[in-house]
What we know:
The chain has strands at residues 14-21, 27-28, 42-48, 50-56, 67-70, 75-76, 87-96, 101-105, 110-113, 123-124, 132-133, 143-152, 155-157, 171-173.
Amino acid sequence: SFTPASNSCSRTGYTFAGWTVSGTSDVKSSAFTWKYTENKTFTAKWTACSYTVAYDANGGTGTMENQQVIYGVRSTLNPNAFTRYGYTFAGWTAYRTAQNQWYYTNGTTNTWYTEGSQPAGYELYRYKDQQAMSKISAVHEDTVVLHAQWNPNSYIARYDANGGTTSPRSQGYD
């Protein structure tokens, strides 16, 4: 008999669930003894990581339910339900709690960096409302917090002299 080696395999976005043995569909933990009478192949069995997407109003008001996501499975972000007086919703920035990192882009490449360590030319990536995603985090039971981003509304005040000879100049307000 023999005991398979403990798992030294790794796979991004997945956790090791055990071994399957050729000719069977049973999943065995890495701590079992096999009484062999012929050649066998032990194949790693993987379980996709799951994580939580949480939503932060970032100065806005309202509530949004957290979203459970499975790594590699295409999901759509929940529709924004937050509002902020005097502002228009402008997307989401992502913060991954497991590594204390923000999601950045340079327009071509998107990747995670600790704030302040991103290369020159990188800015926070903005997810669109209800954007599709599949691999935001490869860390099992991680929480990715999406922070609402807001653009201030701009207004112009125009004056009409209504038959008079002069009017004050129009003014812009944020």
